[in-house]
Design a protein that fits this description.
Elements lengths: L7 H10 L6 H12 L2 H4 L6 H18 L24 H22 L8 E4 L14 E4 L2 H4 L10 E4 L6 E3 L9 E2 L1 H7 L2 E5 L2 E6 L2 E6 L6 E3 L1 E3 L15 E4 L10 H7 L5 E8 L2 E11 L6 E9 L3 H11 L28 E6 L2 E6 L2 H8 L10 E5 L13 E7 L3 E7 L1 H5 L16 E8 H6 L6 E2 L1 H11 L17 E13 L7 E12 L1
Parallel strand pairs: 4-12, 5-11, 17-21, 20-23
Antiparallel strand pairs: 1-2, 1-3, 6-7, 7-8, 9-11, 10-13, 12-13, 13-14, 15-16, 15-17, 18-19, 18-22, 22-23
Helix pairs in contact: 1-4
């Protein structure tokens, strides 16, 4: 039963607690607790002396339990030394962060109007079951140092200066890369920049650093860290790459960055919508090696399903549609001697450049897998591109296809493919000599879980394979199901295939997946 906030006891308690209880959330919690006491149900019969006594006791209890400003913040009880250590549960951690974020957002919405511009605020709600003693979720101070320690180990925390929070919109012309930065990046670091040819140069004072690569969009290298300097759980490069340009947020991070650096403890209230992608706002420290340039700025972390980031990169990586002046800078094919034909090769393309190459799709994929940083999507295709000769690839034998990530789908294949150990013969010079497995329906989540988004066929291969396998009434093609929707895609993958009826040979190796992918 909730207390009546207008009764004499509640009004008196509110007035007495104003100096020691800056949090409306805590005051309401105390009043609600009082409302559950039997005495509150018969408050009209209380004598003035009883009311005064109850008020004095409640005020005394608040003062006794309220943490002193010179005492450390209460911590949950430490686990026993002999307690078993369980492996971290990513789903449980994500749920804890989401719950705390919702509570902190509610606290911010209820109280933010009280804080003067320029003051620093920490909001860090905790599950009451984990709190030993009193706990104050909101701490306000004149400087960052006044609030930096408050709630530092909570699952989620808002840490911001009043005036920098709120919703913002940022223009981009495309999703440039997993990480990218705009004008706010150089402004925060106090540096100058210019770009020409295949290089970008950053300058501060007498120091300069140059970044170049076989791409018209060379990446800048930077150290990205949590503002408190806590060690990251990063397993990749210590100076990850980021695309740099004149537009975009001060710094776009990846969801992996946020998890590895624990940036849920440094969020700023509000949403930064980059293009059409809503992002959480976070405080993050960035430094450019070779320059005396280090700053803590407010960056962005995409708050969308991973599949949406894959789709944005898929559109960006269609390099064969780039302008004629850009494609030659990619060094797609190895050099050849004068007078000799170009060498045909396979490339894995992502993040605006060739990440791997080889004599087969498998070799190109394995070469690209050595790249240590985040790549949302890759294309694997033959270069120079050429239309493959059309031949009959009628898929008639029902099979069960097991893919990486524990994904299993129903498909069809030419009967001779399994009999020949997966080999399909040549489909044109340099084409894959592996079987083609037709999957009538496959969910987007399965496509990504199997890693097929990192080995997708380029435009020519998609046109070739899908025309053979899904074109109704075409050259021996198998018509799609009447209710099929989604997008036709091709990918190269390591797989294990067995006939659905259990009769005949199976196959373990590399193959081509042609699938209709549905959301």
């Amino acid at each position: 039963m909730a207390a009546d906030l207008d009764d004499p006891l509640a009004l008196a308690l509110r007035a007495a607690a104003d100096d020691v209880a800056p949090s409306d959330a805590l005051r309401h919690a105390v009043l609600d607790a009082l409302g559950d006491r039997p005495a509150a149900r018969s408050r009209t019969r209380l004598a003035p002396a009883v009311v005064a006594g109850a008020l004095a006791a409640a005020a005394g209890l608040l003062v006794a339990l309220w943490p002193r400003t010179d005492s450390p913040e209460p911590r949950p009880p430490a686990p026993r030394a002999d307690a078993p250590v369980a492996p971290p549960d990513a789903d449980a951690q994500a749920a804890a962060v989401a719950r705390a974020r919702a509570q902190n957002r509610a606290i911010y919405a209820a109280e933010h109007a009280r804080w003067p511009a320029g003051t620093w605020v920490s909001i860090a709600w905790r599950d009451p079951a984990t709190v030993a003693g009193a706990y104050k979720p909101v701490v306000v101070g004149a400087s960052l140092e006044d609030v930096a320690a408050a709630g530092a180990d909570a699952p989620h925390r808002y840490l911001f200066r009043v005036g920098e929070e709120g919703d913002v919109e940022t223009f981009v012309s495309s999703w440039y890369a997993p990480r990218f930065a705009g004008g706010g990046f150089v402004a925060a670091l106090g540096i100058e920049s210019w770009q020409g040819g295949d290089a970008v140069v950053l300058v501060k004072g007498e120091h300069r650093v140059r970044f170049a690569g076989a791409t018209p969009f060379p990446r800048v290298r930077a150290t990205i860290a949590a503002p408190d300097g806590s060690p990251p759980r990063r397993t990749g490069d210590a100076t990850p790459e980021l695309w740099f340009g004149s537009v975009g947020p001060a710094l776009m991070l990846t969801p992996q960055d946020a998890d590895e650096l624990g940036l849920s403890r440094f969020e700023v209230p509000g949403t930064e919508t980059v293009g059409t992608v809503p992002c959480r706002r976070v405080r993050v420290t960035v430094e450019v090696p070779g320059l005396d340039a280090k700053a803590t700025l407010v960056g962005a972390v995409p708050d969308v399903p991973y599949a949406r980031l894959v789709a944005a990169s898929r559109a960006r990586h269609r390099f064969w549609e780039w302008g004629e002046g850009l494609v030659p800078t990619l060094a797609l094919a190895p050099p050849t001697l004068p007078g000799l034909p170009s060498i045909e090769t396979w490339v894995a393309f992502g993040n605006d450049r060739v990440l791997g190459r080889g004599a087969s799709p498998q070799a190109a994929i394995e070469d690209a897998d050595r790249f240590p940083d985040v790549v949302y999507q890759r294309y694997v295709l033959r270069w120079p591109r050429a239309e493959l000769p059309v031949r009959d690839e009628r898929a008639t034998q029902a099979v069960r296809v097991a893919l990486p990530g524990g994904v299993e789908v129903d498909g069809r294949v030419r009967p001779t493919a399994l009999e020949r150990g997966g080999a399909e013969g040549s489909a044109g010079s340099g084409a894959s000599r592996v079987a083609v497995y037709v999957v009538p329906s496959m969910h987007e989540a399965e496509w990504i879980r199997a890693g097929l988004h990192r080995a997708e066929g380029g435009d020519a291969g998609v046109s070739y394979y899908t025309s053979l396998t899904f074109e109704p009434g075409g050259r021996g093609g198998e018509p799609p199901p009447p209710t099929a929707d989604g997008e036709l895609r091709v990918a190269y993958a390591a797989l294990s295939v067995r006939p659905k009826d259990g009769a005949g040979p199976g196959f373990d190796g590399w193959g081509v997946i042609v699938a209709r992918v549905v959301p």
